[in-house]
Write a structure and sequence with these properties.
The complex is a heterodimer of chains A (634) and B (859). By secondary structure, chain A is α/β, with parallel strands linked by helices. Helices cover 42% and strands 17% of the residues of chain A. Chain A has a 5-stranded mixed beta barrel with strand order 1-4-5-7-6. Chain A has a 5-stranded parallel β-sheet with strand order 11-14-17-10-18. Chain A has a two-stranded antiparallel ribbon with strand order 8-9. Chain A is elongated. With 859 residues, chain B is of the alpha/beta class. In chain B, a hairpin with a 5-residue loop joins strand 12 (485-487) and strand 13. The relative contact order of chain B is 0.06. The chains are: A alpha/beta (634), B alpha/beta (859). At the A-B interface, strand 2, strand 4, helix 9, helix 10 and strand 16 of A face strand 5, strand 8, strand 9, strand 10 and strand 11 of B. Strand 2 of chain A pairs antiparallel with strand 11 of chain B. Chain B: InterPro entries: AAA+_ATPase, MCM, MCM_4, MCM_CS, MCM_dom, MCM_lid, MCM_N, MCM_OB. Chain B: Residues 126-137 have a biased composition (Low complexity). Chain B: It is found in: Nucleus. Chain B: One of its GO terms (cellular component) is nucleus.
């Protein structure tokens, strides 16, 4: 009798039972039933926390062919492959034929009868998935802490696996006569964490030979951001692969396959290349390496079920159905008070400038909620100009934001970075994969552009292309991926925050000049105190929840207010046609929307509209003031 | 019949009862009929085709029966004729008349069809028939014989195909391959004649023709290309050498079918397509080096020098263990230079960007090209590939018990057809671009039948951009374009059919958005910004290909948007140098290039949609268009429509604008969908109209056009100015044609002309109105100066002359003083520019010269 957790430990047994049962009754649709079974099981209370996650459990602690989950972003889509859905094996001794199911498996059983008439060819799709880029450490930790999976390294298995992988890695080294160029180390606050992170996972590895982690860096795992870590995974999708899109974030539940035979096959190929065999020459060595990397580095995951993630905030329940909206509405009441708290915190951080703090909140909860043909609606790119350049103020600011949002990325716009970094993903036709770039980000990632790092010098071709890409990203919320013969447009939803001394060279929806109210005599000390000031843990969590919830709320404008807004606009134009343009109205509507949401109001009220207008008026007057002072371009 | 004896030990997995192969029918899932992979590798039959080396020994005895005889050849090195799929030779024997042509011409192997042509025929009545000789018995036996695993009967199939070749006539053909052929004669017979003249032994056959001729034959061709195509080869060679017995070909003719409608899109390939004939379109992204592939291995016994040949079977050679002559074991060695190799090339093809769903990455497929198809395509080419889709299981390794349960798939190419090559020839390039389903055409036609289709479509265009109805209508007409006319016989070359539009106006009036929208809407659109583009970026540049080290021409935005729309933002910011290349493109629609030894003329039949900002950042209503945007009038006159996008300042407009914007922010997605036409429908509508509708002027409409033109000239002449030039008439015609296309009408009628006139007038009213007089004055666009301005200049010049004459005998005057004097005299203000112009006018009359600050009188 199977125990409660058997479906986690050995899901293939469940599937095979169903397959066997279906053989007697054709058209039973056992495949759908199998998927349904796992879905049902996962729906049970807390069931999904029992499933170990590839994100936080080292690979060699996981049992092969067990059910695991993986929180990831689809980085690349490979070509569909045909596999033996059903095949027949012949026992060499008894000559007995058995029908077997090839679904959810990479490797067949012994003695496949290739000439069997019962072979059924089926199709599946492979996605190359990476952990969500820029996911902040508090998110990772929190997810790991909530997991209730029993991960006991199986003693009988681990040593052999380790040995295997060690050998492979050695071989990989040999193959890698030309080690892939390591990405430019990133001079951000993130970079120090890179090594630390590797150690993190190693700490848990009690018996891992040190060689394996070192050599793994030789293979380019194609993470969008430099300095990322974590497993990447080849996810095999069996149905409805058309509904997944590149850069979707998913939680995949699937069967882990790390069979060493996979790597062995690859090695075999490597050794015998050059021999007359049509299947051999079909792929280049590079393509081989990318499409079938050793399973110890890039495990295969056979997808049973995938839930698209609305957000990756561990403090919120997974929003999937109507019952979760109850959670959202329950938190509405508190929002105003949390907002006030956040406002005072940001005011403090922004040197006492409440207006900038206000706009920063609006920015952090903005999201592209819809697109009208080419026009993305709801984006709110903020340009905080007038930031003090002293002593890494901007980096501190980033660290604070990092503590609050689930995923973020810091991009210092230094000449070096702009000229050498690859921001736009590019198709590598030799290896037949999409080489990722820093702009391949999951939705609602906060991209922090530090323009104070700008220096004098010349942008080369790459630099110009990168700046153009950033401009396109901000204006249209899209990135044109480079497919060498043509470009392909991928819509995105990235919150871009630009900090600069003067007006940014990039376009932005809204520019606020920071007026420091307090001029601390010692900036170092002041900044230090902010850091110490960092909120108590529960407090911090409240803020995190607040920011994520505000983004998920629905919003509407009543008929009555539509009318009022229209009247307002007409009146303003009547007095002075230059005072407000269509573009200003666009911005005003976005500000009003975000302001309402930030206070937990799901529809626009007259009050909010006036407040939004007031905010905008304050901002523009400050801009004019600033223009007069500096004599800068408007 | 022969199979049990001639292929002992052969394992036939697909059906246990070989005598009833047709019972499974052709519809059985291909995944269950892996003919290609099912046989075990042990037994290999010798080559059915005569290898080129054998031709040198004509005395080689050949089996005379077409269908395999029950007795097996004794001599092992003799060509086994048991295959029914022999090329030409045996059948010509049957007829008994020796034909030098057929026999002297070596058949070439078809590695594209694989080496699986060994499938024996099966007699449905399971009675061994001796189908020797005679055509009569062939017909008799043919009824019952089918190739194993298929329902193909060689005799019938051959006969059908010959009939097809002899009879097929396609009077409506418009393919460029068929140009120069008489469409009312059997098409393929003419092609055969061509082969006999040119000597290129390849016959391309359009599958659609086969389908329209004989659907059953077409089905067989699609389902069993491996068997049917060699049969076709055989048929065509028989026919050919019968017709042209004296012609000498290098090889026997090979049939290359193309345009199989099985699959159009790489994405829709699935296991059902395995081993079928398919056509996919895509872009070549990589080609490999040439791979010599062994077709036949030559073994020689080291003991007795006895030689034997072994055909390669799926990439492997079964080395004979025992010499059949002296029975020595393991004494045979491979002799490389006597083995037969064929050329092979791996080509990677990627889905064309148009076929891809949004948000996914393109798929790639491996294609193998064989023999003369090698190096036919280059990376970057858009091609249609016809071939056989294959799936090969991962190699079974003897040392390994389990295998990766994945098949490798590829396509063996039979025919390549470059799609962009045709664009250069310029004949009806859009004919096969997009195919519409019946339903879709029906929907589109329904839509076209509605009386307000024009308004509907224009409001569906960029719904997020508010108002500017006329501008949207103009752009809509641009999307449809006029009818392409060819006057090359009379020496004027092609008439421009594309409508060029310039939008100018205040910043922030969503010009860029409109451009972005258009760019996203049309399949072949390019978007550039004037600031960031250089002349070469727009036209073409020459670079050295890093791989081939050849000089290659890389085309720029204008060439890439051939047959599309090139959107140029910030047109005014463009350097003069760059702008000058547009002159040729915007009227002649070609691009002439002479650089790095490459001299050529490329087609650039693109419509230009440009946006420009006024020089003073805000539109100055007191100035003319030219003065506002500072563009050369030579360029401006090439735009059919110039629209001003100004921020109108009136309350009603503001209210509507506000309502529009607010609704943008609160309406849900579905509501928006309901309100406007889907972008996909619009796109299809335009594509359909562009492809299938080519309106011609009706008598009535041309009369109206003439009247309109005369009227336009008259309006001007009344005040002494010209308000229309032939270019304007051409614009009117284009616009009227485009409007007729919107209505799916083959005739340009009066309403089309009326709308064209209205739109043209609207655009003129906006852009060519003289701010000083308020009249429409086309000379602003054609000469850069309004007539009143010119008149004024003349007046000032005359006044100046009078003044100088009044002063009398002063040969030299101070410039500044003269200006002051004139200012004092004149009642209207005289600017320095005006004064300068007046001086220049007088200098042109040779009345005076200006040197520095002094003015000297001449004469």
């Amino acid at each position: 009798m199977p125990s409660t957790h058997d479906w986690i430990d050995s899901p293939l047994v469940v599937i095979e039972d169903m397959f066997a049962a279906s053989q007697n009754s054709p058209n039973s649709g056992w495949e759908a039933k199998a998927v349904e079974f796992f879905k049902e099981r996962l729906k049970e209370k807390d069931a999904h926390t029992w499933v170990p996650s590839l994100n936080d459990v080292p690979l060699h602690y996981l049992k092969p062919n067990s059910l695991v989950k993986f929180r990831c972003l689809i980085q690349d889509m490979f070509d569909p492959e045909f596999y033996m859905g059903v095949y027949e094996t012949v026992d060499s001794s008894t000559k007995a034929k058995t029908l077997r199911c090839g679904k959810y498996k990479d490797v067949t059983e012994c003695g496949v009868d290739f000439s069997s008439t019962n072979t059924v060819t089926a199709e599946r799709q492979t996605f190359y998935c990476v952990p969500i880029p820029g996911e902040n450490s508090w998110v990772k930790d929190s997810f790991a802490a909530s997991s209730q999976a029993r991960v006991i390294p199986s003693t009988s298995y681990v040593p052999s696996r380790q040995k295997r992988s060690y050998e492979e890695d050695e071989e990989m080294d040999d193959m890698d006569a030309q080690p892939q160029k390591q990405r430019e180390p990133q001079s951000g606050p993130q970079s120090p964490s890179e090594h630390l992170g590797n150690n993190d996972s190693k700490r848990l590895e009690t018996e891992a030979p040190s060689g394996s982690t070192v050599s793994s860096s030789h293979i380019n795992l194609n993470f969008p951001l430099p300095g990322e870590k974590g497993p990447s995974c080849l996810v095999k999708v069996y149905e409805n692969w058309d509904c997944f899109k590149l850069n979707d974030t998913l939680e995949v539940y699937g069967i882990l396959s790390v069979s060493p035979a996979l790597s062995a096959l690859a090695d075999e190929k490597e050794a015998s290349s050059g021999v007359l065999d049509p299947t051999e020459s079909m792929e280049t060595a590079e393509e081989q390496r990318v499409h079938s990397p050793p399973a110890s580095l890039v495990p295969r995951l056979h997808m049973l079920y995938a839930a698209p993630l609305q957000h990756n905030n561990p403090l919120l329940p997974v929003i999937s159905s109507a019952d979760d909206s109850a959670f959202l509405s329950s938190s509405l009441g508190e929002m105003a008070s949390v907002r006030a708290e956040l406002l005072s915190y940001f005011t403090h951080v922004l040197l006492g400038d409440a207006l900038s703090a206000e706009y920063l909140i609006l920015h952090l909860i903005s999201t592209v909620y819809s697109r009208r043909d080419v026009l993305p609606l709801g984006k709110f790119t903020l340009n905080l100009s007038g930031c003090p350049t002293v002593s890494s103020y901007t980096e501190r600011l980033y660290q604070i934001i990092q503590q609050l949002v689930p995923s973020s990325y810091y991009l210092g716009m230094s000449l070096q970075n702009m000229n050498h970094m690859q921001l736009v993903p590019k198709k590598d036709y030799v290896a037949n994969r999409l080489v990722s770039g820093a702009l391949q980000l999951a939705k609602n990632t906060s991209l922090f552009l530090d323009e104070t790092k700008l220096e004098q010098g010349q942008l080369d071709t790459t630099g110009v292309r990168n700046v153009t890409a950033l401009g396109n990203l901000i204006s249209w919320q899209k990135v044109d991926y480079d497919f060498s013969y043509h470009q392909m447009e991928f819509p995105c939803n990235i919150n871009v925050l630009i900090v600069s001394e003067a007006r940014s060279l990039l376009p932005s929806d809204c520019q606020v000049h920071v007026h420091s109210q307090v001029v601390p005599s010692d900036m170092e000390e002041y900044l230090g105190s902010i850091h110490i000031h960092s909120q108590a843990f529960s407090q911090l969590n409240k803020l995190r929840i607040y920011l994520s919830v505000a983004r998920l709320l629905d919003y509407s404008i009543s008929e009555e207010l539509t009318k009022a807004v229209e009247d307002d606009f007409v009146d303003m134009r009547k007095d002075d046609p230059q005072s407000i343009s269509a573009e200003d109205l666009h911005r005003l509507l976005v500000v009003a929307r975000l302001l309402s949401l930030s206070l937990g109001q799901t529809s626009l009220s007259r009050d909010m509209w006036l407040r939004a207008k007031d905010l905008e008026a304050q901002r523009t007057s400050r801009m004019e003031q600033h223009t007069c002072v500096n004599g800068n371009e408007p | 019949m022969s199979s049990p004896t001639s292929t002992p030990g052969r394992k036939r997995g697909r059906n246990a009862n070989p005598s009833t192969p047709s019972s499974e029918g052709p519809t059985s899932p291909p995944s269950q009929r892996r003919r290609g992979q099912d046989s075990s590798t042990g037994d290999l039959m010798p080559m059915p085709t005569s290898p080129p080396t054998d031709v040198l020994s004509p005395s080689a005895p050949q089996d005379s029966s077409l269908f395999s005889s029950p007795r097996r050849s004794v001599q092992p090195n003799e060509v086994d004729m048991s295959s029914p799929l022999m090329y030409g030779t045996p059948s010509s024997r049957i007829e008994g008349t020796p034909r030098s042509g057929v026999r002297g011409t070596p058949a070439r192997q078809r590695p594209d069809l694989g080496s699986v042509r060994k499938a024996p025929q099966v007699d449905l009545q399971s009675e061994p028939s001796a189908a020797d000789g005679g055509a009569a018995s062939e017909a008799n036996a043919g009824q019952r014989l089918v190739i194993w695993g298929t329902d193909v009967n060689v005799g019938i199939c051959k006969e059908k195909f010959q009939r097809f070749l002899q009879r097929f006539i396609d009077p409506t053909s418009n393919e460029d391959e068929n140009s120069g052929l008489d469409l009312n004669e059997p098409l393929y017979m003419q092609k055969l004649e061509e082969i006999s003249v040119v000597g290129d032994p390849v016959l391309n056959v359009n599958c659609l023709h086969v389908q329209s001729f004989d659907a059953e034959l077409y089905r067989q061709l699609i389902s069993y290309p491996q068997e049917v195509i060699p049969t076709f080869d055989m048929a065509v060679n028989e026919l050919f050498f019968e017709r042209f017995p004296d012609s000498i070909l290098e090889f026997q003719i090979q049939v290359r079918p193309y345009n199989a409608l099985k699959t159009r899109n790489m994405r829709s390939l699935n296991p059902e397509d395995i081993d079928q004939l398919i056509t996919i379109s895509g872009m070549v992204i990589r080609t490999s080096q040439l791979i010599p592939e062994m077709q036949e291995a030559f073994f020689q016994c080291q003991v007795c020098a006895y030689s034997t040949r072994v055909e390669v079977d799926r990439g492997r050679i079964a080395e004979p263990a025992v010499c059949r002559n002296c029975n020595t074991t393991h004494g045979l060695t491979l002799v490389h230079n006597r083995s037969v190799f064929s050329d092979k090339q791996m080509i990677k093809v990627q889905e064309s960007p148009e076929d891809m769903p949004a948000g996914q990455t393109p798929h790639t497929t491996v294609v193998y090209a064989h023999n003369d198809l090698v190096d036919k395509v280059q990376p970057g080419d858009r091609v249609n590939i016809t071939g056989v889709y294959r799936a090969v299981p991962m190699r079974v390794n003897p040392r390994q018990s389990n295998v990766k349960a994945v098949y490798k798939t590829h396509i063996d190419a039979i025919h390549f057809r470059k799609t962009d090559e045709k664009r250069l020839h310029g004949v009806n390039e859009e004919a096969e671009q997009k195919l519409f389903t019946e339903d879709r055409v029906q929907t589109l036609k329904e839509l076209a039948g509605k009386p307000d289709v024009y308004e509907r479509l224009s409001s569906a265009l960029a719904p997020s951009i508010y108002e500017h109805e006329d501008i949207k209508k103009g752009i809509l007409l641009q999307l449809f374009g006029g009818t392409r006319k060819d006057f090359s016989q009379t020496g004027r070359g092609h008439f421009r059919a594309d409508v060029n539009i310039l939008l100018c106006g205040d910043p922030g009036t969503s010009k860029s958005q409109l451009l972005q929208y258009v760019y996203n809407l049309v399949p072949r659109g390019q978007y550039t910004s004037g600031k960031g583009s250089s002349a070469v970026g727009l036209t073409a540049y020459v670079m050295k290909d890093p791989e081939t080290r050849q000089v290659v021409l890389q085309t720029g935005a204008l060439v890439l948007s051939d047959n599309g729309i090139c959107c140029i933002d910030e047109f005014d910011k463009m350097s003069d140098n760059t702008r000058s290349v547009l002159h040729e493109v915007m009227e002649q629609q070609t691009l002439s290039i002479a650089k790095a030894g490459i001299i050529c003329q490329l087609n650039a039949r693109t419509a230009v949609l440009a946006a420009a900002n006024p020089v003073e950042s805000q539109w100055n209503p007191k100035k003319t268009t030219i003065e506002n945007i500072q563009l050369p009038h030579t360029l401006l006159s090439r735009f059919d429509l110039i629209f001003l996008m100004l921020d109108p300042q009136d309350e009603a407009y503001d209210r509507r604008l506000a309502h529009h914007l607010v609704s943008l922010y609160y309406q849900s997605e579905e509501q928006m969908e309901e309100e406007f036409l889907d972008m996909a429908v619009l796109r299809d509508y335009i594509a359909y109209a562009r492809t299938y509708i080519s309106p011609r002027l009706s008598e009535e409409a041309s009369q109206t056009l003439i009247e309109a033109y005369v009227d336009m000239r008259k309006i001007g002449s009344g005040r002494g100015m010209v308000s229309a030039y032939p270019r304007q008439l051409e614009s009117l015609i284009r616009l009227a044609e485009a409007h007729a296309k919107v209505r799916f009408s083959e005739k340009v009628e009066n309403i089309d002309v009326e709308e064209a006139k209205r739109l043209h007038r609207e655009a003129l009213k906006q852009s060519a109105t003289d701010p000083r007089t308020g009249f429409v004055d086309i000379s602003i666009l054609t000469t850069g100066m309004s007539l009143t301005a010119r008149k004024r200049k003349e007046e000032v010049a005359q006044a100046l002359k009078k003044m100088i004459q009044a002063k009398g005998k002063t040969p030299a005057m101070k410039y500044q003083q003269l200006l002051d004097d004139l200012r004092g005299q004149s009642e209207t203000a005289i600017t320095k520019e005006l004064f300068d112009e007046a001086l220049r006018a007088l200098a042109d009359e040779d009345y005076l010269t200006v040197t520095g600050k002094t003015v000297r009188l001449l004469a």
